[in-house]
Amino acid sequence: LPLGVLNPIELTAVNQSYDSPARILALVWFGTTTAADTVDIRHQGGDKRIWKGQTDSTNTYLGISFGNTGLGCPNGFILKQISSGTLLVYISEE
Hints:
Layout: E1 9-11, E2 17-18, E3 22-32, E4 38-43, E5 49-54, E6 59-65, E7 71-73, E8 77-82, E9 86-92
Antiparallel strand pairs: 1-9, 2-8, 3-6, 3-7, 3-9, 4-5, 4-8
């Protein structure tokens, strides 16, 4: 990880981003929500989606693991949408 970056990276607002090369190991979206709330994270500098989640309840705990090697994000990533809650991004070195 780049110096000073601690896992997980917490994203709570639209357009929060991580601008260094990274490999995402896992994403966890949690918190108080309303049915149909969404979260959408994409590759930085483009519009390619990494993951999109939608809840059907009032208490969300959704996520995805990209395995031991993770998902490469050579330019970082950006939170394009979050209705509520927090998105935790677990990364490793690129």
